[in-house]
Amino acid sequence: MTKPVVIAGAGLCGTLLAVRLAQRGFEVELFESRPDMRRADISAGRSINLALSDRGLRALRMVGLEEAVARELIPMRGRLIHPESGDPVFQSYSGRQGEHIHSVSRGGLNMALLDAADDLPHLNVHFETTCTGVDLESATARFHEHATGESYTVEGCVVIGADGAHSAVRQAMLNQAPRLRFDYRLDWLSHGYKELTFPPAPGGAYALEKNALHIWPRGGFMMIALPNPGGSFTVTLFLPFEGENGFEAMTDGPSVRAYFNRWFPDALGLIPDLEDHYFQHPVSSLGTVRCHPWTAYGKSLLLGDAAHAIVPFYGQGMNCAFEDCVVFDECMDEFGDDWLRLFQRVQALRKPNADAIASLAVENFLEMRDHVANPVFMKKRRLETLLENRFTDYFSKYSLVTFREDVSYALAQTLGNAQDAFLMDLCRGDTAPEDMDLQEVMTRIRMHTAHLRQSL
Amino acid sequence: MTKPVVIAGAGLCGTLLAVRLAQRGFEVELFESRPDMRRADISAGRSINLALSDRGLRALRMVGLEEAVARELIPMRGRLIHPESGDPVFQSYSGRQGEHIHSVSRGGLNMALLDAADDLPHLNVHFETTCTGVDLESATARFHEHATGESYTVEGCVVIGADGAHSAVRQAMLNQAPRLRFDYRLDWLSHGYKELTFPPAPGGAYALEKNALHIWPRGGFMMIALPNPGGSFTVTLFLPFEGENGFEAMTDGPSVRAYFNRWFPDALGLIPDLEDHYFQHPVSSLGTVRCHPWTAYGKSLLLGDAAHAIVPFYGQGMNCAFEDCVVFDECMDEFGDDWLRLFQRVQALRKPNADAIASLAVENFLEMRDHVANPVFMKKRRLETLLENRFTDYFSKYSLVTFREDVSYALAQTLGNAQDAFLMDLCRGDTAPEDMDLQEVMTRIRMHTAHLRQSL
Asked: Tens of pLDDT along B145-191?
């Protein structure tokens, strides 16, 4: 009897990979500690949405789910900035037609993947079964089944850890850190987050522009909102834990109301029962996980958040995890089930890109928090939109990361940062972007970044 | 009844701190998973020696042990370089009289501290009792007593983790990482190490110069040897794990002998039964641990390797841990048993210095491995010795770290690196150090580093 591929974690990454491996004919056993979200009422997660962009869409295409999912997506064509005073300002994500991101329900997408999994005969999903340990050398995972209270082991041909930021498979590697020379790094932001909801306006209408990602940048902290189907928005407050504008300043109902009245007055009318709502939701931390190696003994591999949990500020966590699966699949064309070489190639291809998006995400946090409302930055965004409108070979850093799934995160970071430094310098001058000689600007950009653009 | 100070780990750091706290009148319960090395025959550790320098001596002075320990120290006045060909070259550690380091037995020093602990009525040491977990908020530690197989908890006023690189107290913080925003970083070198021994020459003589730290730098790898009382040397091979000159190349007796014959021929005659000896000793990994915070809830604190395990290439691991205890003690003069503020101050004072010595130790690995036999580097060392001979206000980076216990590691790093860059540039020219105008060199160094020297 052939041993199955054991996958820990039936979240977005694990289920996608399981589906793809089963489509390729592998026996797959997929384990998930949470209940089946299609049967249980897991209210948490239902209303949470994510930004899906081209790298993620490519992965859905790989397993044949792009069309089914497309019907549930809400396009977000740009950022709608809500300044402290004055009218909101729209910043397009791209100067090109059709380049936008999508708000998608995390739960809905996961359920679509689980439905696809159910249709595959070689794929078994075990819910409410927690991975409690892994023997890496024999690819044997231990599980605890909640319903029966029983524990058992499953020996796979390999064990793949797609079990998220708190991965048990990664913990098994960490337990052997000196032997594996397992580098590990955990970094937390000084900011935490809290999720709130803007309910639909009367009649199921959207109280704010539907097709945008809303941002209230406040210099040092911010709030964002993404649209859900049905008229609601999922809202996330990103505040420092400490200090006068931090979460610790909101100790009771009146201080919450005063805070919103001071910083987000236009949102006040959008959250009924703000005080109750606020205190019903927890404050969570924002961390980055980096590690290396992702593979041990040719028998185990980490993918997705288990290998590279990142902060959410580029909207790329899911997209990066999905891209891991696409690269895994492409490498399989070359290596088949030569797992040792397959895993090493996947690691070699993905690790530099995971590091790049991890850094980009932290940098984008600073950008969204501090600079989105900054005049030089706003000029630069306008200039980039003009350049993207006019030149087919200009892509902002944001576009490279978000719309160019053929460009690696690492190259997007290097080229994007070079462009940004150049354009920010230009925009510190007095000339408005609309009065600039765009042809000359583009010629200079091409020269300035020629060494990086060769592989575009 | 007052609750005791609970200290996990009766190694060098934990025992020193326990002694000092007991001297100050605190009730101290000290726990150690290993047996009492004064009673059990723990061969591992007996022959291992460490480099003790001024920061460490200051700590021994604090607890009144400097004189007793001094009798067991072997001065090492410089590095004795064994090149691939030609005669050994002596590089003094300092151009000043009396500035040298000491080889000391780790076990001997630890036993001296334990003996001092026995003399203190308020201090109980529990051997063969492993800390298996800590409730940080209540300062309650769980222990497993080997002899009885029993587990019990001890509630302290605080719990101090001096339990080394694999600290259980640090693990308790890591288990609450999102809540504590516990940054954690584990980095491994590509090199490992293996300890060997040169036994005494006939009649108990030293087969090599006694008062030196011996180095065989080979560009990419190296061997070192430190003297023990009685004529033997503890030898450490630092090799890459992989590659033709790595540990993996030595698979059997003949390949070990061939390796030594090729790279360390003068050592061949010093190790009888080289092949057996070689395979009796394991290859270990070399890692750096960085974390933050070191303290949680005002109830727990990490010190020594538990807070900052470093690689051994500056000979400062023990010295840094001892300095932690000295700073702890100084802060007690201000904060007494206001543990919350005490622990925060200790962390604030020590974290930047622990980071500095961690980086310096990795950098010194590269220096010892690659540059010690390099002509420009050797010129620079000669020039530094001349400068230290002539100017009372010149201290090399090595001297700042090693002999200036009044200068922080962080300042030693910054000032030392600035001096090094300046002197290396100077030594790339044709002039020999002996022909340089030392007064002019020193004037330029003083100007170049004036902003850093203010606090010297």
From this structure: 999 999 999 999 999 999 999 999 999 999 999 999 999 999 999 99
The ranges of chain B annotated as CATH 3.50.50.60 are 5-72+105-185+287-365
A contacts of B362 (beta carbons < 8 Å): none
Closest Cβ–Cβ partner in A183, A184, A188 for B181: A188
Residue A367 to residue A373: CA distance in whole angstroms: 9
> What pLDDT does A164 receive?
96
Q: Which CATH architecture has domain A188-285?
A: 2-Layer Sandwich (3.30)
pLDDT tens-digit series, residues A212-267 = 999 998 988 999 999 999 999 999 999 999 999 999 999 999 999 999 999 999 99
**Nearest CA among B187, B8, B36 for reference residue B113:** B36
In sequence order, which ranges of B296-338 are alpha helices (DSSP H)?
305-308, 317-335
Question: From edge to edge, which strands make up the β-sheet containing B151-155?
Answer: B129-135, B140-145, B151-155
Q: Tell me the nearest-neighbour CA distance from A185 into chain B, angstroms.
A: 4
Closest approach of chain B CAs to the CA of A308, in angstroms? 14
> How many Cβ contacts (< 8 angstroms) between chains A and B?
48
- Element (DSSP H or E) covering residue A6: strand A5-8
Edge to edge, the sheet with strand B28-31 lists B123-126, B28-31, B5-8, B158-161, B300-302, B295-296
pTM, to two decimals: 0.91
Tokens of A333: 């064309």
Find tokens 């699966």 and name the residue: A325
Query: In one letter, which amino acid is B77?
Result: R
Strands A28-31 and A5-8: parallel
Average pLDDT over residues B218-244: 94
SS3 of residue B360 by DSSP: helix
Is A178 within 8 Å of B188 when comparing Cβ atoms? Answer: yes
Contacts of B183 in chain A (CB under 8 A): 186-188
* Cβ atoms A275, A268 nearer than 8 A: no
Contact B178 A188 (CB under 8 A): yes
Q: How far is B182 from chain A (nearest CA, A)?
A: 7
Q: What average pLDDT score do residues B292-300 get? A: 98
Region A5-72+105-185+287-365: CATH code: 3.50.50.60
Backbone dihedral region for residue B100 (phi beyond 0: left; psi -120 to 50: alpha; all else: beta): beta
| Share above pLDDT 70 across residues of chain A, in percent, rounded to a whole number | 97
H or E stretch covering A329: helix A317-335
Using CA coordinates, name the residue in chain A closest to B179.
A285
Closest CB from A179, A186, A241 relative to B177: A186
The question of ipTM being above 0.85 is answered as yes
* Rounded-to-integer distance, Cα B408 and Cα B391, Å: 21
Residue from A175, A184, A190 whose CB has the most chain B CBs within 10 Å, to mutate: A184
**Directed axis angle between helix B409-427 and helix B375-390, to 10°?**
120
Q: Which residues contact A350 (CB under 8 A, 6 or more apart)?
A: A294, A307, A323, A324, A327
Sequence ranges of chain A with CATH classification 3.30.9.30: 188-285
Residue located via tokens 């070990």: B256
